[in-house]
Amino acid sequence: MKTRFFAVGLGAILLVMGVCYYFGWFDQITDYIPWFADKGDLRVRVYDAMQTAETADDKPLANVTVSILSTELVKKTDSNGTAYFSDVEVGDYQVQAEWGSSVIAKNVTITKDTIATLTFLFNESTS
Fold first, then answer.
1. What are the tens digits of pLDDT across the range 53-107?
2. pLDDT band at residue 34, thresholds of 50, 70 and 90?
3. Which of 6, 72, 77, 115 could be joined to 41 by an S-S link, Cβ 3.0–4.6 Å?
4. What single-letter DSSP state applies at residue 37?
5. Alpha-carbon distances of 25 from 16, 18, 88, rounded to whole Å
6. How many angstroms separate the first and last alpha carbons of the chain?
7. Separation between Cα atoms, residue 116 and residue 1, nearest integer Å
8. Is residue 19 very low, low, confident or very high in pLDDT (cuts 50, 70, 90)?
9. Is the torsion defined by CA of 44, 48, 54, 57 positive or negative?
10. C-alpha dihedral over 100, 104, 107, 112, to 10 degrees?
11. How many CB atoms lie within 10 A of CB 60?
C-alpha cells in the first residue's frame, strides 16, 4: 500500500514539474543557478581573401586556431573553414583567429538561444 502511494505521489510531482517546464515557469528560477546559465552558440568562418576584394575568390581555411579569449574554448576550423562553439555563456567576448603568424581578433556578443556568426578574412586586400 505504501509503495502505491509513493508511486502515485512521485507521478503527480513529475507531472506538475513537466507542466511547469513546458510553460517555461522554471526559466526565472534557473537564471539564478550558475550551471543553468543562459547560453548561445558561435559560428566562426575563416577565409583566405587571396589579396582581392572579390568575395567569390575567398577560399575556406582549414586548421585555423580559433579561441574565445577569457575562456578555455579553443577549436580548429574544419575543411570548410568553420569552427562551431555550442553552449557559450551569454556575454561579450573577444574571439581570436590564428593562421600561421597572422592573428586577427574581433568582438562578439553571445545572446540567449541564438547563433552568433563571425567571419575572419586573412590576406584581405588593403585597397
1. 777 778 999 999 999 999 999 999 999 999 999 989 899 999 999 998 999 999 9
2. low
3. 115
4. -
5. 11, 10, 23
6. 83
7. 55
8. confident
9. negative
10. -30
11. 15
Under 8 Å between Cβ of 106 and 94: yes
More confident residue, 109 or 57: 109
Q: What is the CA 34 to chain-centroid distance, rounded? A: 17
Sequence length of the chain is 127
Strand partners, 94: 107
Cα distance between residue 112 and residue 115, in whole Å: 9
**75 beta partners:** 66
91-122 core/surface letters (b: 16 or more CB in 10 A; e: else): eebebbbbbeeeebeeebebeeeeebebebbb
- Give the closest residue to 70 by CA, choosing from 93, 45, 96, 90: 93
Instruction: Give the three cell numbers for residue 74.
Output: 579553443
Task: Name residue, grid cell 502505491.
Answer: 4
